[in-house]
Amino acid sequence: MYAALWRILPGPTAVKALIAVALFVGVVLILFLVVFPEVEPLLPFDQITLEPEQTAGTVGGESGVGEP
């Protein structure tokens, strides 16, 4: 796949490298500025399903802090 893309790019090696970097940066910018903001509302990042933390040696959710 990458070899075919490299053969399609015009120019000598330095020009091909610059074009490849520009294409990569363009794809990343499109992803961050267009695609990710569009799909973000569909992702469940705000639905946290963690249980409350219990530490070892505590019973009934007591923290043990400040107790004799």
What do you see in this structure?
This protein has 68 residues and is mainly α. It has a domain at 2-39. Helices cover 50% and strands 0% of the residues. It contains 2 helices and no strands. The protein has helices spanning 2-8, 13-39. The relative contact order is 0.07.
Question: Could you provide a short overview of the structure?
Answer:
The chain has helices spanning about 1-10, 15-40. It has about 70 residues and is mainly alpha-helical.
Largest sheet: none
Order of helices and strands: HH
Strand content: under 5%
- Averaged pLDDT: 83
> How would you name the oligomeric state of the polypeptide chains in this document?
single chain
Give the helix/strand layout:
Elements: H1 2-8, H2 13-39
Key terms:
mainly alpha; 68 residues
